[in-house]
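3.2 Worked example (two chains)
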Amino acid sequence: MVTPSAAGGDLEQLSLEELRDQVRVLRERVRLYEAVLVTGPIFVHVYDREMNSRWATSTLRPELGYQPTGLLTAEQNYAFIHPEDRAEAKRRADELLRGDGHTPRRIRVRDAEGEWRWLAILAANLLDDPRVGSIVVHSWDVTEEVAREEEVDAARRLLASLIDTLDEAVVVISEGKVTFANAKTSQFFPAVGDHQKLIGRPAGQMQEAFSGSMADPEAFIESARRIVAAGEVVRGLYIETADARIFEQHFLPVHMGRRLASRMWVYRDVTGQLQLERRQKRLLEMEREARLSAEQQNERLRELDELKTEFVATVSHELRTPLSALRSYIELLLDPGGGRSARSSARSPTQYGGARFGWGGSSTICSCSPSCNHGRCGSSAPGSTSRASWPRRSMRSAEARHGRCG
């Protein structure tokens, strides 16, 4: 096999047979390179200075649904690019012609069905290379990758929106820097400012910014350092701010397998809750005191009720006997004498009173005279009491009414 280098680099000195061998070798190499490129996901494009196509692998157009029909002009090439990406593609091409570095980027390209597919582009300016003299662009289809990234990004935005609606301030630290902070962070810690500006700052700066809102900044920073050094979950740690608010602090290490991926700080304002708990506690204490006072009052009322009952019983017992006697003599005084039948058919007041006082005898009036009550007669009815046992006032009344009997 003869090559230009083997022949001294001068093709004019080669024979016709050697030239044929050289062309055959070159064709075999091209087929080999194309076969290698076809089996891989990389598309190779070669352009001149005006971005007209000079060569391309046969995999690009079938991949997009187009059949190879020849090389395309710069205008035709740009027509495949999405209108929103076209200006950026031209700007990148100008930068490439000026010799600026070209980093990988993505553009959308229309396929034969009119759908937009994402291609990753990596270009190199080899116009000054005598062996190439072209701009070489490598590209590969990343449509599915972009779709997955968009799904993840949508889920991330949704999660961020949900976290922003929480009543807690949430801050995520990854690799020593703040990677996420929701809107409540700015509200809870005014010294931080805009929570978006907190993203990307070192974790130490975040803690220092938070400490500006604390009642004891040094104690807050020292506590955060101890918590991070321990690397364990912390829940329900109370911290007080300079404006007398109380926050409940949580620390949650996030692991990916065995590797510590992130650290999450959560702060919840529990000022109102603690005030409510204190108020409820005071109300419960007041309720217990009121219940105890009511029990004491009830016990006192029971004692007074017992004293009342005892007093009433005593008074009733002590007054019943004299009242009964008074009633008997009042009835005696009010009786004008009446007839025999009345006195014979009813008990006399003295009988009533004697029975009440236990004087004995069923009758104290004799049978000698209807008006005689044995004041002076000296006789007595069976079972009657003596005159000496009568009260003096009763004897005088009897003598005044009846005089002396025979």
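3.2.1 Second chain
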Amino acid sequence: MDIEHVIAAIMVCTLLVVIVLALSRASKTRLTPEERMTINGPGNYAIDVVGESFHQKELEQLDGEGAFGEDRECQAELLLDDKNKYDKNAVAVYIAGVLVGHLSRQIAPVFRRELQKHGAVRAFVRAKVFGGTKKKPNFGIWLDL
């Protein structure tokens, strides 16, 4: 195993520990029969949303409607995606009720277990949206977990 693989493995493990710690600090609020959590992350926006390249039109429309605010911060909803035909552990990411991507295959199973351990099927987290400019036309999303 070369050094790049070791570094990548360490980074994934570190992110998973951050997620578990954030979930353990999360405040759970019962608002509906499907419980939800609000996760107050450490403020580093270290979790990258994947698959947003498939949702560029939706992100462009949300940006045009001002859904991200001036500083490009917004709230994202993470929802267990049990009907995902590509990944049985999928966790979908929504902004303003619009699907904009998923958690990565490495992070989703850990997040899913922790969410279920707390009896929740959804969580709300802070998100930063970047891109959508002439210099960087494609949108991307980071989550504060």
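3.3 Remarks
Residues 49 and 110 are 15 Å apart (CA to CA).
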